[in-house]
Amino acid sequence: MKNVPTLDIRRYDSDRAAFVAELGAAYREFGFCCISGHGIPRELIDGAYDTFQRFFALPTETKLSYRVPGTGGARGYTPFKVETAKDSKHADLKEFWHIGREIPRDSKFAEVMPPNIWPSEIADFQPYGYGLFEALDQLGSRVLRALALHIDLPENFFEDKTDQGNSILRPIHYPPITEENIPNVRAGAHEDINFITLLVGASAEGLEVLTRDGEWLPITTEGDAIVVNIGDMLQRLTNHVYPSTSHRVVNPQNDNARKPRYSVPYFLHPNPDVVLDPLPQTISADNPSRYDTSITSHEYLMQRLREIKLI
Ligand SMILES: O=C(O)CCC(=O)C(=O)O
Ligand SMILES: [Fe+2]
């Protein structure tokens, strides 16, 4: 397998054993797979992109009025050059918005999962933004069912661990690069923090994943395929059977550098109280447990947000 494969998720219903085996093999090898046949309507994806682009086109002052200081950007707007990949000297060349899960305000997780805010200037931002959040959440749950079966867990293993997940939809804008010889990149090499990430519209060039051989492999999707990758929380829970793979977004070395790039990752997180200890099914003589301390997903998230300078 030289390239990250594209697999049709409808085969989970029509050809389950082979699909689960192929998906599992792609994740063990790359930590990444592209998913087609997902059924998310084109109109929802295009409509959401359109509202996000109109938001990023607003004046800086207006956008900054949606920054919520002291919250790590958990909701609302985070400006250009704030997030900095772990161990990087230079901030990323991106601005973004965060939409979180709507939960009852008397939920035990209410304190760590604040209500969403919405930009009043952009009419359909909320229905498109939350519509895409819910569609990707459901697709993520389908991918997690296959990932569970592949490591001998019950199909619904992740259900009660993600139904209140502190997940985030992150529309990103990478503006045109106008400065010559800039040391910053669009997104420095990093691993995602969460269980799995679903990335809609990685069709514009730039995304690269680090292979086991240490080479950077570009990913561009076919058709409407969605890129789905493993994050550090699932890597920890599965004792690295599912690897969280480094990836980055490079600056184009051609005229495309003068064009903006937009992307929308959905970071599917576990519920805040899920303990991320390696599962017994993933510990063996060849792969002894790699962790001897316990941590909840909320504690883990707080540690990681400090490392990337969001809190
Ligand atoms: O913009 C992309 O294609 C990838 C973004 C990404 O990796 C991230 O935000 O974690
Ligand atoms: Fe990422």
Mean pLDDT: 95
Q: Report the uncertain regions.
A: none
Write down the Rg: 19 Å
Largest sheet: 9 strands, mixed
Name the bound molecules: 2-oxoglutaric acid, fe (ii) ion
Q: Give the count of helical stretches.
A: 8
In helices, the fraction of residues equals 25-40%
- Please identify the structural class as seen in this structure: alpha+beta
Percent of residues in beta strands?
Answer: 15-25%
**Which shape, going by the Cα principal axes?**
globular
Order of helices and strands: EHHEHHEEHHEEEEEEEHEEH
What's the β-strand tally? 13
Distance linking N and C termini: 39 Å
Characterization of the model:
Keywords: Dioxygenase, Ethylene biosynthesis, Iron, Metal-binding, Oxidoreductase. Pathway: Alkene biosynthesis; ethylene biosynthesis via 2-oxoglutarate. InterPro entries: DIOX_N, IPNS-like_FE2OG_OXY, IPNS-like_sf, Iron_ascorbate_oxido_reductase, Oxoglu/Fe-dep_dioxygenase_dom. This protein has 311 residues and is an alpha+beta fold. Helix content is 28%, strand content 17%. It is built from 8 helices and 13 strands. It has helices at 11-14, 16-30, 42-56, 60-64, 125-150, 159-162, 232-237, 297-307; strands at 6-8, 32-36, 76-78, 95-100, 168-169, 172-174, 187-190, 196-200, 207-210, 216-218, 226-230, 247-249, 261-268. The strands form 2 sheets. Strands 1, 2, 3, 4, 5, 6, 8, 11 and 13 form a 9-stranded mixed β-sheet that branches. Helix 2 (16-30) crosses helix 5 (125-150) and helix 3 packs across helix 5. It starts with 5 loop residues before the first strand and ends with a helix. It binds 2-oxoglutaric acid (AKG) and fe (ii) ion. The site of 2-oxoglutaric acid (AKG) has 11 residues, from strand 12 and strand 13.
